[in-house]
What does this fold into?
Amino acid sequence: MNTSTKTVGVIGGMGPVATLDFFDRILKRTKALRDEDHLHVIIDNNTKIPSRDAASKGEGPSPAAAIAATARGLQDAGADFIVMACNTAHAYEAEIRAAISVPFLSMIDETVKAVHELRPERVGLLAADPCLRASLYQDAFAKAGLDLVLPLSESQRTLQELINRVKAGDTGETVRRSMVTLAKKLEAQGAEVIVAGCTEVPIVLTADNIDGELVSSTDVLVERTIVFAGAELRA
It folds into this structure.
């Protein structure tokens, strides 16, 4: 085994389809000619973490302790750094960092950095309801000095329905077309860059579907994870 790279710990299960997609993209983006060239990845597909959506509405327990315990378990299992394949759960980033002594790569921070490098004037965001309630991207983009465009209320309701359908395993043509329509509406509102700020979104939305740039939070974290671990990116 190639011991020159760091071991990756992935807080997963939020949701499982997105976690599988995240790992699949790591495999595809890592430059590897043999098994040993791939990264050592430890994934905790912890589907029993309390609902982030319910917690954000005050209708369920906080998932903070469960997420922090998952991070700590990954560290104890040998992870050299931790990532999380869920945007919304970054609302509990402080609890994660407090629970571990290894680095934590923030999907939110890395995505905002990637968008900032493109130097757009207006950025469109496709994110789940609880992510918006936590103001994760709103605050991060405001700090970066970027103007954020959000879906109108009816479009946001549709987006959350589509995210839930992807979580349930529906990645069919109807879901794909509907997601493209939402992205194009943001472009019509003036967005030059569309951010897939939920890990379910890039499962059904690709850069070929829109006129402008698409920044997938999943792809950004995949690339940053591979580089941080010390491996090479596949072109």
